């Protein structure tokens, strides 16, 4: 069985086929404590029971083989009814989240596999249950959802709905790519318009519990639990790939791989660059430093977008929540016009500008924004419209995605 001898029997002259089968069953059961496999059956049949935990990983293929040094022969039927625990990969994802962010708060929703995941309506259920407190959503659907642009677009629709309800959030998809043999066939996420959606395609490699679970289940488990932990741990303006702060290796992910089982070490630099440019998130290593790091905080939108990276969205979302919290108590309150012009009075303009500026001041102090200001055009007719237009300008914090150094010898220092 996959190179392991489950049992052997030496035929004697008087044996018939039933005797051989009986001998094999006894030999296999004598090794059960070592191999985990047990044998039953009657007459010429040897029926095997696999140890718990093998799941679907031994179904089909050529795992089971019969060998004889003489003329003996047997009809071998491969395992076919192995099933994997649906909870094991979920437990792994949850444990990976808390490994990275032990102080995090995680809402978990388990639901039966529906016929389609086209609308991601569970997002609304979680939003309602948490009263809009959730900032990052992770979606995992075992083998039901492969890496597909349609799923990314569908999730963006849900994120846009949340934004319209002032429940600002980002999302992370852990999609199945176990059947992907050519990584170049993965869709270009940067060609989409889904800034609130990211896709994790990394997974643990050699010695990883995640890789073992994926092999048993027969579908990708991904490193999405660790990535979600990073999104929770990092400050809103920080790239989750910040090498100095966010090493995701430890008891897991010491050997980075893709979620189809391919080790990063077996993938060319050009192919990895292409996957990064397509907007995917995966683990990687760097020469000169120990650890595993996220390649970048990519989102499924053009790289030229103001919201091309997770930190862009998290920072603007936090600012939106802060400004809304500051202004919401003023809703349906009085707006004083200048009695001589009918436009906004200077005092009203100053009051509301200070509300907005105070809301973003703490983010600036904490380094989450480089700067910002609230602007109100006094020349607006609030008496007729009952609507106050306010503009908030923000300057975001930049990220050192590349550091270019020119180095060489000179005759003298400049």
3D structure, described in words:
InterPro entries: Phage_HP1_Orf23. It holds the Pfam family DUF2586. This is Tail sheath protein C-terminal domain-containing protein. The protein is of the alpha/beta class. The protein has 3 domains: about 80 residues, no CATH class; about 220 residues, no CATH class; about 80 residues, no CATH class. It is about 30% helix and about 15% strand. The protein is built from 11 helices and 14 strands. The strands form 6 sheets. A 4-stranded parallel sheet has the order 3-4-6-9. Strands 1-2 form a two-stranded antiparallel sheet. Strands 5-12 form a two-stranded antiparallel sheet. The relative contact order is 0.09.
Q: Whole-number average pLDDT?
A: 93
Overall structural domain count: 3
Give the class from helix and strand content and strand pairing: alpha/beta
Beta-strand percentage range: 5-15%
Q: Uncertain runs with pLDDT below 50, 5 residues or more?
A: none
Helix count, DSSP H or I runs of 4 or more residues: 11
Categorize the overall geometry.
elongated
Strand tally is 14
Task: Please tell me how large the radius of gyration is.
Answer: 29 Å
- The helical percent reads 25-40%
Across the major sheet, the strand order is 3-4-6-9
Notable characteristics:
3 domains, alpha/beta, Tail sheath protein C-terminal domain-containing protein, two-stranded antiparallel ribbon, 30% helix, Phage_HP1_Orf23
